[in-house]
Design brief:
- 40% of the residues lie in helices and 14% in strands.
- It has 275 residues and is α+β, with helices and mostly antiparallel strands.
- It has a six-stranded mixed sheet with strand order 3-4-5-8-6-7. The protein has a two-stranded antiparallel ribbon with strand order 1-2.
Length: 275
């Protein structure tokens, strides 16, 4: 109703402006309207957003979803009284999902069972990020404040960082902006039993320019890192270089609750190898 009134007033003003500038009101384009406003109302304000404008109502007033009611006039959404019904709806859905996985943990405690996600169920936390405030407002078709967006972001991060967040992975991905491809396409090396040490181990190979690296991870271990038979500190005296090597294991231990002290990493590097 309000938008129709504003549109009618805009059309009357546009026709009057066209007559002042000597243009045909029927073929008076928005570009000509902007040029006429700049000519009739010159401004030396530095910020362009503070200068006078004359735009169509749907460009000035953001679209708002009307209150949906049944034939008897009763609102269909139970959060209509909050004035941000769609925002509070997704907030409550996130809280219900969080309480659901908490209940799952409690039930496993009372049943004396341990719930641990497998490698396929653990999602990559760095592969995507939550959508921005603008995209969230477009999704729910409502205008929210920075405080409301921060509140929603804290709740979603708390939900995604839960050890059993894979149970509600589909709900979390609805509000994430994908950055890299799915991790399910990555082929992980299969562990095998070492005949010499009689321990489980995994081997992987990598190449950087003309150097080849063979990495063997033993479990259980002592937490030592050896590179070409030497300690990690001797090969990489800089702290930043050592952090880059240890980071993958730290990220893995974050999701699977594996301590770094119970693994042993053996690295063999061949330098200046011509492939």
């Amino acid at each position: 109703m309000i938008l129709s009134i504003e549109k009618k007033e805009y059309e009357n003003g546009r026709k009057f402006l066209a007559q002042i500038m000597g243009y045909d009101p029927v073929h008076f384009t928005p570009e000509q309207v902007n040029e006429a406003i700049e000519y009739l109302l010159p401004s030396s304000l530095y910020t362009k957003r503070a200068r006078p404008v004359f735009k169509e109502p749907h460009l000035v007033f953001p679209p708002q979803k009307q209150l949906q009611c049944d034939v008897n006039g009763r609102p269909l959404n139970s959060y209509f009284y909050t004035t941000h019904q769609n925002f509070h709806k997704i907030m409550n859905e996130a809280i219900y999902k969080l309480e659901e996985i908490k209940l799952h943990v409690d039930q496993s405690y009372f049943n004396k069972t341990t719930v641990k996600p497998t490698l396929k169920e653990v999602h990559c936390a760095t592969s995507s990020d939550f959508m921005s405030k603008i995209n969230l407002m477009k999704m729910i078709n409502e205008t929210i404040s920075d405080a409301q967006y921060k509140q929603w972001l804290v709740l979603m991060k708390r939900l995604s960082e839960h050890p059993l967040s894979y149970l509600v992975e589909e709900f979390i991905q609805n509000y994430k902006a994908q950055i890299c491809g799915p991790t399910s396409e990555i082929k992980l090396p299969e562990p095998f039993m070492d005949s010499v040490t009689n321990r489980k181990c995994v081997q992987a190979f990598g190449q950087k320019k003309n150097s080849l690296a063979e990495v063997t991870l033993y479990m259980p271990g002592t937490g030592d890192f050896t590179v070409n038979g030497a300690r990690l500190l001797e090969i990489f005296p800089e702290l930043g270089n050592r952090e880059q090597i240890v980071f993958p294991l730290q990220q893995t231990s974050k999701f699977l609750n594996i301590l770094l002290c119970i693994v042993f990493l053996k690295i063999q590097v061949i330098y200046n190898r011509i492939i």
